[in-house]
What does this fold into?
Amino acid sequence: MSFTPRKKLTHVRPAWAKESDPVFLTLCCRDRIRDQLANEISWHALVTAAESMLSDHNWNPRLMVAMPDHVHLIADIPRITGIPKAIRLFKAKTTIAGQIDWQRDAFDHRIRNETSVREKWNYVLMNPVRANLCAAPSDWPYTKIWPRNRSPQGEPR
It folds into this structure.
């Protein structure tokens, strides 16, 4: 059996998938060595873009953590916006303002249940600790948690 690698991810939510399922996104910088995201200018651009997209009803972000070379997001993305558009909008809004050189494409994963939400949530929060950037998740300044009432499913607790 031959294997043909996929050249581009579609980021399309299957028709059978629930729209209420949150999406776990990872967006990486092109230069994975240089710190492009864990600084005040980039962080401000990331939060401003996420808030702008929330105001425009393009998504409901739940959690965002910026690492030096990638950002993790958990968000509710309505079908009308779609995952590809949400990724494009977020990258477009942050590229110039945050001086970020994004890698082409992104990783997305639909989260299917509350147990998985909690697992991804903890994984994202612990990312800077695992990378030895801080001792506890609360010490990392590049973390944003949106209030529960803004997200249809609410943040896990």
Observations:
- The first strand starts at residue 23 and ends at 28.
- The CA atoms of residues 26 and 72 lie 5 Å apart.
- The chain has one domain: 23-146.
- The helical segments are 40-55, 83-95, 114-130.
